[in-house]
């Protein structure tokens, strides 16, 4: 049978606009609510004990259902899943903005997580099957990577503006126009390539085990932050997660149509991407979390000013992703972008460990933000593209879901781990310096800054480790050249990796 090359979709760049818009909505929602949370808590009478659930309800639903959402996208079709996710996310956002009590708000946040778990993998897999030519793919993933990396900082800015000049409810309502525009554009413009669905039956045992395992893991880190790492409930959740996820792997190795085909994970390049991205997100969450508190509490910035202070990092991410990553991706191996990118980001984080009570923003914080942005933007772009490298079209959704899963779990780990480290360092500093303190308020601020700095030091090491993993595991060649991964086995048929123009031609491959 003659090999055929699918026709190129003439509307692919218009499609990118709406895919990117949806991705921006999902990513910024992760941070925009953080800025609005104090106002929402006061308005709805949410207790301090229940406050964390505004964040946790979303994280559990989103993180727990991502693999299911990716598989649904492969089964139903990515365009349909994408639009359903957008409409559902808009409805959930409207409910959150109209919440009359804490129960309604928490329910809306969980519902946002459910539809976000459909939307996020559908968006990335649509991008993977739409852009198949190496140079165009580099540009498209450059834009997508910049949004994925910088969207959280955009959320801080937008959340500050909406909370300060309107009210917290608009941090939910703002999602509605995003979703309406993206869904309308997707319906009119996006064309999913024929023959890219996975018609296999849904793996129900895999769905149950993966969902419960991921929920236990994410919730375990949440409880670790509040109850301590050695508390009974924390250890119990981690043990349950380990058992459930091990059972999931055993089931997936035996069922005919697995939720997560293990071939997606056993490719060393994709495994390197998932591991390094997860670690990088831990470091990123450390930066957002502690620098937000530092700028508002220690430096006295308003929410809007705090958001604007992160703007140079967004500029750095966009520049690193579209001007460095996208331009070099077709010329050098991905690991020669990802490893240096994570290293530059670690250098930026290293600069930020020097914060003090009277630190100058232009002299220290600004250079740190710029280095962070440039490094993460340069690394994120090839990582997003490589996540679906060589994968069969029918597995594109679940492979994309693994990217989001690694980021979501990384975010949960980062929040819990670095918060715990910061709290311990703060307490230790306050205790050891209490005798010579000139005032209680000054000691409180000094202890706080010491705790932030200590946690950021840990984030430096984690980012450096992400760079080492990227350099060690990822061995594929540059697009346009032969590579070990280009011939990796993907079952009976494989799609040639980005080195040959991903997704263009399917060829039979003999098992190694």
Notes on the protein architecture:
- By secondary structure, the chain is an all-alpha fold.
- The protein is built from 18 helices and two strands.
- α3 packs antiparallel against α17, α12 runs antiparallel to α16 and α12 runs antiparallel to α18.
- The protein is globular and about 70 Å long.
Secondary-structure map with pairings?
Elements: H1 12-44, H2 48-51, H3 53-76, H4 78-97, H5 102-130, H6 134-165, H7 170-173, H8 175-189, H9 204-227, H10 232-252, H11 262-266, H12 268-298, H13 303-309, H14 311-328, H15 335-352, H16 361-386, H17 396-433, H18 440-473, E1 493-495, E2 506-508
Antiparallel strand pairs: 1-2
Short description:
The chain is mostly helical. It contains 18 helices and two strands.
What characteristics describe this protein?
512 residues; mainly alpha; Growth Hormone, Chain: A; 3 domains; two-stranded antiparallel sheet; 18 helices; 1% strand; disordered N terminus; disordered C terminus
